[in-house]
Write a structure and sequence with these properties.
The complex is a heterodimer of chains A (383) and B (265).
Chain A: H1 7-23, H2 25-34, H3 41-48, H4 66-79, H5 82-100, H6 103-114, E1 122-123, E2 139-143, E3 146-157, E4 164-170, E5 178-184, E6 190-195, E7 206-217, E8 221-222, H7 228-265, E9 267-268, E10 271-272, H8 277-305, H9 311-335, H10 346-359, H11 364-376
Parallel strand pairs in A: 1-4
Antiparallel strand pairs in A: 2-3, 3-7, 4-5, 5-8, 6-7, 9-10
Helix pairs in contact in A: 1-4, 4-5, 4-7, 4-8, 5-6, 5-7, 7-8, 7-9, 7-10, 8-9, 9-10, 9-11
Chain B: E1 3-7, E2 10-12, E3 21-22, E4 29-30, E5 36-38, H1 40-56, E6 59-65, H2 71-78, E7 84-88, H3 98-112, E8 117-121, H4 132-140, E9 144-153, E10 159-165, E11 168-174, E12 178-182, H5 194-200, E13 205-208, H6 210-213, H7 248-261
Helix pairs in contact in B: 3-4
Classes of the chains: A alpha+beta (383), B alpha/beta (265).
């Protein structure tokens, strides 16, 4: 067993860290105020290879795989978690197109995503809920050579920063009644709705998509008619959850750094508070959480790169890491005392950001449903 | 402009400087266990060379005199977009002072062959002597411009250089072959892209020892280094406390005078 990263992966981490530490901090204040994704960063992230990291080279990507992606997202998240939030959903769109698209669709839609000309979206969630995929109400009906799409999608990351969206809608009843479509924002009847103002990950754009008799060319169906559930589940479970986990991993990393730095500098009773056992135990716990989260995230991503089934491992990485991010951020805030709730200090942002990761990309509870199913599988009685 | 050679040096990572120790006998830094990074100013030299590559398609070659294990650092710089790297590594080179180091680098450059420009960082973080670039130029018998903070190319393929001096700048026009050493104001080094990381894995790091360079061993290493280190002390970091006495008004006046004296206000 080898726990060491390769020289390539170490260099990639270094490269993203340098980029994140230099380019992201000047953007954060505006992101926090406006709730807007710094779209101007796409060009430099594309130059670095972040936007197209999992896209195949033949479609303008780098083709580096999921472990590399996790490391890149972690490093971005260490500085500002809203950026990898936007990026990981962007990658989901690339994954969906690459896994289910025709060659024409891949040729047309992956290169602009890989090059950062636009951001990617996979729109599943509706006002009625996200986890209950089969309960969705958006419908698509084939009329002549066009699909007519009606419905609303909400809590959609990158909704307003993308030129096209991958949208799941009902084409019939039941599990085989969902289909996926590539909808361009210029298609008649497609529009963006309200923008959400979240407590955390504020710089990641989240909003609503509205389809009112939206006309989509017949060939813009992604995958088979009735294959939409597979598009949604595979993309969310193999790409979305690992991306969300990597974002939260970056937060945990930042929690440790902020907490350890403050505890070493803040003097009480004539010595740094890190020498107080209560504080040092908090630090020990965050330190351990970081290692657990990192191992879970890296394993899940590595398995995906080996073409192994990894939905359970991704669910574990996602539900554990996002919860851990909240626990660690709370401890980091507490270590800061009253300073922890001041906006000048990064830890308050870490706590707000961590809270958002818990319900995004499949709630922690849904993740645990997947895990419980795996834990009980050996004991399930055959009917 | 066909070929640029950039001299680069791995130095102890500034983030690990608090762990750096001095050997009390040899008066040298104990580098074991301290990660190396590329000397920060060297990145500006690499960027300047890569800009020439972007403009003219010039080949960019890295040259470094360092221990054998410096290869990952060179690989990193190759990831910025350099084409090839030469690592000059031999036990005979150990203990070289700036003169002996420059002699070795110059011989490395001669072995590489023709070049148009040689780029260096203005100084390295560990030694900070800023002597090597000029010494290399001297050995190669070419002009050297230090403290270059801006560079542009004129139509005639000569260079328009801005040199930073103590109180202002000097504009110079110069023609290759030339050795230039750069300050951090010269440019913003590019980030290492993932595409270049993959490409750099295929690029070769050539390792040359003294059997290849064939330099008289009395002129390199400790033997060839006229610099004798008399002593080296760690500068203790301490705030100088001054106690002002008197009533509050007097103290405030003395404090204001002090601040004024220091030129802060």
């Amino acid at each position: 067993m080898d726990f060491l990263l390769s020289q390539r992966e170490e260099l990639l981490r270094k490269s993203v860290r340098e980029f994140a530490e230099s380019e992201l901090p000047p953007k954060i204040e505006t992101m926090e105020k406006t709730g807007e994704f710094p779209i101007e960063l796409l060009e430099s992230m594309a130059k670095l290879g972040i936007t197209g990291i999992i896209a195949p080279p033949e479609y303008g990507g780098v083709g580096l795989g999921y472990l590399a992606r996790t490391i890149a997202l972690e490093e971005l998240g260490r500085v500002c978690a809203a950026i990898p939030m936007g990026m990981q959903v962007h990658h989901m769109a690339i994954a969906a197109l690459n896994d289910f698209g025709t060659d024409e669709q891949k040729q047309k839609y992956i290169p602009p995503l890989a090059k950062g000309d636009t951001m990617g979206v996979v729109a599943v969630t509706e006002p009625s809920g996200g986890s209950d995929v089969l309960g969705m109400q958006a419908t698509a009906e084939l009329k002549g050579d066009k699909w007519i799409l009606n419905g609303r999608k909400c809590f959609i990351t990158n909704s307003h920063t993308s030129d096209f969206w991958i949208v799941i809608a009902k084409t019939a009843e039941g599990a085989k009644g969902l289909s996926a479509f590539i909808v361009e924002k210029d298609h008649p009847g497609a529009k963006t709705g309200r923008v959400e103002h979240k407590i955390g990950l504020r710089g990641a754009n989240t909003g609503e998509l509205v389809f009112d008799n939206c006309e989509i060319p017949k060939e813009n169906i992604l995958g088979q008619e009735g294959g939409g559930l597979a598009v949604a589940l595979k993309t969310v479970s193999e790409s979305g959850r690992t991306g969300m986990a990597a974002t939260a991993l970056g937060i945990v990393n930042a929690c440790l750094e902020e907490a350890a730095r403050f505890a070493s500098e803040r003097v009480l009773y004539g010595k740094p508070i890190s020498s107080l056992q209560a504080i040092s135990f908090y630090l020990a716990e965050i330190y351990t959480e970081l290692d657990i989260c990192r191992l879970l995230c890296y394993r899940a991503s590595w398995m995906k790169d080996q073409n192994m089934r990894c939905d359970t491992e991704n669910a574990m990485a996602k539900s554990y890491t996002c919860d851990a991010a909240v626990r660690c951020a709370r401890k980091a805030v507490e270590i800061h005392g009253a300073y922890g709730i001041l906006q000048e200090y990064k830890v308050q942002r870490l706590l707000r950001d961590a809270m958002v990761t818990v319900s995004a990309g499949g709630t922690g509870e849904i993740g645990k449903v997947v895990l419980a199913r795996a834990a009980l599988a050996p004991y399930r009685k055959k009917k | 402009m066909k070929r640029m050679i950039v001299c680069v040096k791995p130095v102890p990572d500034p983030n690990a400087w608090d762990r750096l120790q001095m050997d009390p006998v040899s008066k040298t830094l104990i580098r074991e266990g301290i990660p190396s990074v590329i000397n920060p100013l060297d990145k500006h030299a690499v960027e300047a060379a890569l800009e020439m590559k972007d403009l003219f398609g010039a080949e960019v070659i890295l040259l470094s005199m360092a221990p054998f294990d410096a290869q990952p650092v060179l690989r990193e710089v190759l990831g910025m977009g350099a084409d090839r790297a030469f690592l000059l590594s031999d036990k005979a080179f150990a203990g070289s002072d700036t003169l002996a180091t420059a002699r070795i680098l110059a011989q490395g450059i001669r072995n590489i062959g023709e070049f148009d420009l040689i780029f260096c960082g203005n100084f390295t973080l560990d030694g900070s002597t800023a002597q090597v670039p000029s010494q290399v130029a001297e050995f190669l018998d070419i002009p050297n411009v230090m403290h270059v903070c801006d560079m542009s190319i004129l139509k005639t393929e000569s260079l328009l250089l801005t040199q930073k001096i103590e109180q202002g700048t000097v504009k110079l026009e110069a023609e290759p072959p030339l050795l230039l050493s750069f300050t951090k104001e010269a440019n913003k080094p590019r980030y290492i892209s993932f595409m270049e990381i993959l490409a750099a894995e295929k690029r070769k790091i050539n390792i040359w020892d003294n059997a290849i360079l064939n330099i008289d061993e009395t002129l390199i290493g400790l033997k060839g280094s006229p610099t004798q280190m008399a002593d080296l002390l760690l500068q203790p970091k301490q705030r100088k406390g001054i106690r002002l006495t008197g009533n509050p008004e007097e103290i405030a006046r003395k404090l204001a005078d002090k601040i004024h004296q220091l030129g802060i206000i």
